[in-house]
Amino acid sequence: MLRIRITGEPVLHQVAEEVQEITPEIRDLIADMYETMDAAPGVGLAAPQIGVGLRIFVYSWEDLGVLHRGVAINPELSLEPFDQDEPELEADSEGCLSIPGERYPLRRSDSVNLKALDLEGNSFEVSANGWLARIFQHEFDHLNGILYSDRLIKPYAKQVKKAIKASGWGVPGLSWMPGQDYLEP
After folding, report:
1. Alpha-carbon torsion 24, 25, 30, 35, what sign?
2. From CA 149, how far away is CA 98, in angstroms rounded?
3. Taking a C-beta distance cutoff of 8 angstroms, is the pair 109, 137 a contact?
4. DSSP-assigned beta bridge partners for residue 156
5. pLDDT number for residue 82
6. Please, are residues 105 and 88 in contact by the beta-carbon 8 Å criterion?
7. 43: which residues sit within 8 A by CB, 6+ positions away?
8. CATH number of the domain enclosing 129
9. Among the options 9, 94, 102, 139, which is catalytic?
10. pLDDT at res. 91
11. Would 174 be classed as within a structural domain?
12. Count of structural domains, the chain
């Protein structure tokens, strides 16, 4: 299991680099990412969230008895246009393991197309709707140095800034280990 970095850690705010080769080390990293995501618990985890500036994310979400679980290496994401008006408080509520315990509404596209490499280096494509589309957008943003808090509108942007400041976050060096307190060094 790996420590999850909290907002303020530089790797979370930088564009991640492409994976050049799927090595045994990359395979081990991905296995550790799955373990960490499951223990957190989360529905997705991007490599920058565990301090690795590579374009990799894992996801796991069950919908109507169907498990959507996988890895996206060097992903590309295309979004269907969407209304960026006021988000719905419940339906659009989102959280992030790098801003632990906080949730705010954020409007996202309801339909996306993901193209990426799998663990074997094979190209794949997934069209996703609803919550899975949200997960892909959230994790893809991490690979571009964007946290969901960066996309929030007023008054939620102000609320998350206050929460980050009150928690002492927003500075380098903070992380948490699933199953332990958020800020244990």
Report:
1. positive
2. 10
3. yes
4. none
5. 78
6. yes
7. 37, 59, 60, 61, 131, 135
8. 3.90.45.10
9. 139
10. 84
11. no
12. 1
By the 8 A CB rule, do 110 and 129 touch? yes
139 tagged catalytic: yes
- Residue 80 falls within a domain, yes or no? yes
Q: Tokens at residue 97, please? A: 């393991």
Collapse the DSSP code of 98 into the 3-class scheme (helix H, G, I; strand E, B; otherwise coil) and give the result.
coil
Q: Is 152 left (phi over 0), alpha (psi -120 to 50) or beta?
A: beta
Q: Tell me, yes or no, whether 62 lies in a domain.
A: yes
Res 185: pLDDT: 44
Burial (CB count within 10 angstroms: exposed 0-12, middle 13-18, buried 19+), residue 25: exposed
**For the chain (length 185 residues), average pLDDT per consecutive 10?**
96 98 98 97 97 98 93 96 79 94 95 97 96 97 98 95 96 92 50
pLDDT at 158: 97
Q: Does some domain include residue 175?
A: no
pTM of the predicted model over 0.90: yes
Secondary structure (DSSP) of 34-90: HHHHHHTT-SEEEGGGGT--BSEEEEEEEETTEEEEEEEEEEEEEE-----SPPPTT
Domain of 42, in residue numbers: 4-168
Residue 61 pairs in a beta bridge with: 68
